[in-house]
Design brief:
289 residues, alpha/beta, TIM Barrel, eight-stranded parallel sheet, 39% helix
Length: 289
């Protein structure tokens, strides 16, 4: 299985898992909160942070935007969607802040204009969200940027995944197994699908988790996930549709720590007498045993 170069990191079998802190829309349209989340990810030892970028009028229909929905920004769904989108000034500040703390960042772009917008910041890769997996035009436009692509495969059939991979090609492609419910139920996670994807496509495979706990994400590393992506938040009780399925400060620190401990623990497949076991064997075994 080939590795994929993301920035200065090789991602693939035999490499440390690439841990992505998904900020998404959990900043609630507040640049200060976004910076706090970047700092949280940096302190926890994540490899990158990720945002979401949409051209609201392109991604949503006029009817959807006009739908009544009480929210901090107004009374319609459109007020909410526009309120959660950062403009160029905000992304300039995000880019500068990430450079200051040496934290790579990129985004899930939901339309071609958003891909072009994010491209000005020279991201190390692009993310295709599960919801965009069937958007051939977006896949082709994103691939044309010549950067590695990470694609989530939630809410999709295997036939749909196969088609998306055919459109994108396997070069510099990473697939993430995902259950696209928020938060996900443990009995619906089906972590074994990662091996199915790896065997079928021969590309690095990872896991994007939306469960409320940490164990499945750590287990995913033990069974071969090359990438782990989790939504992060300052406080899971904050307003926002993704907060409950996100990982808070202490949870994120624990998650990264446990991932690195599992990677260290996997070790060698060769059964051998560990040198540090020798004196224990001499002490505990019967003579001649």
């Amino acid at each position: 299985m080939a590795t994929v170069k993301i920035g200065n990191r090789d991602v693939g079998a035999g490499q440390p898992s690439y841990v992505i802190a998904e900020i998404g829309i959990n900043h609630n349209g507040d640049l200060d909160i976004a910076k706090k989340l970047i700092s949280l990810a940096h302190a926890a030892g994540c490899d990158a942070v990720k945002f979401q970028k949409r051209t609201v009028e392109v991604v949503y229909t006029a009817a959807e935007l006009a739908t009544p929905r009480e929210n901090p920004f107004g009374t319609t769904n459109g007020d909410l969607k526009r309120g959660l989108e950062f403009d160029k000034k905000a992304y300039d500040a995000i880019d500068a802040y990430c450079k200051d703390v040496k934290m790579p960042w990129f985004a899930s772009c939901w339309d071609e204009g958003s891909v072009d917008f994010i491209d000005q910041y020279n991201p190390p890769c692009y993310k295709i969200a599960s919801a965009s997996l069937t958007d051939d035009a977006l896949l082709k436009h994103t691939r044309a940027k010549g950067k590695p692509i990470i694609m989530s495969t939630g809410m999709s059939t295997m036939a749909q995944v196969e088609h998306a991979v055919e459109v994108l090609g396997k070069k510099d492609l990473i697939l993430l197994h995902t259950c696209s419910t928020y938060p996900s139920k443990y009995n619906e996670l089906n972590l074994r699908v990662m091996k199915t994807l790896a065997d079928k496509f021969g590309v690095p495979v990872g896991y994007s988790g939306h469960e409320s706990g940490l164990a499945p994400s750590v287990a995913a590393v033990a069974i071969g996930a090359c990438v782990i992506e989790r939504h992060i938040t300052i406080d899971r009780a904050m307003w926002g549709s993704d907060q409950a399925a996100s990982v808070g400060p202490s949870g994120l620190t624990q998650l990264v720590r446990d991932i690195r401990l599992v990677e260290t623990s996997m070790g060698s497949p060769e059964k051998q007498l560990i040198p540090t076991e020798v004196p224990i064997a001499k002490k505990l075994r019967r003579v001649g045993g």
